[in-house]
Amino acid sequence: MNRRQFGTMGLAATIGSSSQALSNSVKGQNFFELRNYVLRRDIDIARINQFLEKDCLPEMRRQGLAPIGCFNVVTGQPSPSLLMLLQYDSLAKVRANTDLAASTSEFSKAWKEFESGPLPYIRYESTLLKAFSAYPAIALPPASEKKKLFELRIYESKNAVKSAAKIEMFNLEEIKIFKDCGMHLVFLGEGLFGTGLPQMTYMLAFEDMEDRAKGWQRFSRNKDWNRIKDDPRWL
Fold first, then answer.
1. Which residues pair with 31 in a beta bridge?
2. Whole-angstrom distance, CA of residue 201 vs CA of residue 73
3. What's the maximum distance between 2 C-alpha atoms anywhere in the chain?
4. Which of 14, 134, 149, 185 could share a disulfide with 206, CB 3.0–4.6 Å?
5. CA-CA distance, 84 to 126, in Å (whole number)?
């Protein structure tokens, strides 16, 4: 199984979220979209940040999409780039969100103005994920004034059978190990559409690089992790 990872630093606190929004979203099957905007040094990055903050994120909140995360990439993939994390409580919501640009709403006008102005981005890629049964929704880290470090980890399996086995390992064992090690899981999702399939993706939140190093050190020494990591059921 190939493992890829990259860290991201939040542009701001996760937006459009609350404990009530989270509890409401767990009623059915949740889906996550990871949208990566590829930027360039000569692009005015402040423009896309302003569009997201002023127009895009408020409209998505009105559509009932919450929580929403926006992140600047620090390492692990080409920079500059901007990553968005969206949560949907149905595939119908996914479709409705893709139709926003073609609507006649005020948001559609703002979107067209943003897209038709100076080059807004080079390209964007989108991956759709299905939430794990044992971790059905985005879980926000504790709020703080300091920006947090978010680590996104992608596991690309050799085939669908191996991918299902790895997801089972997380659902039955590994999620609990992360919690026991004091590591905050933001979300876990099985790739449905996108690149590098079959794959699973998850995100962790840390206070900083030191907190990350200590967390992974605890994880590597955890007795349950060392019990299961070479279990042939999940290799």
1. 88, 130
2. 16
3. 57
4. 149
5. 9
- CA–CA distances in Å: residue 139 to residues 118, 184, 202, 205: 36, 8, 12, 10
The letter for the amino acid at 197 is L
Q: Which two tokens stand for residue 77?
A: 């993939």
Q: Tell me the DSSP string of 141-206.
A: PPP-SSPPEEEEEEEE-SSHHHHHHHHHHIIIIIHHHHHHTT-EEEEEEEEEESSS-SEEEEEEEE
Radius of gyration in angstroms for the set of CA atoms belonging to the chain, rounded to a whole number: 18
Task: Assign 8 a pLDDT band (cuts: 50, 70, 90).
Answer: very low
What is the value of pTM for the model shown? Answer: 0.86
> Euclidean distance between the first and final Cα of the chain, in Å?
8
Rounded distance between C-alpha atoms, residue 172 and residue 148, angstroms: 28
Cα 112 from chain centre: 26
Cβ proximity of 155 and 166 under 8 Å: yes
- Could you read off the pLDDT of 115-144 as tens digits, one per residue? 998 999 999 999 999 999 999 999 999 887
* Vertex 176 angle, CA 174 and 178, to 5°: 70
Strands 184-193, 123-131: parallel, antiparallel or unpaired by DSSP? antiparallel
Pair of tokens at residue 65: 């999409």
More confident residue, 146 or 175: 175
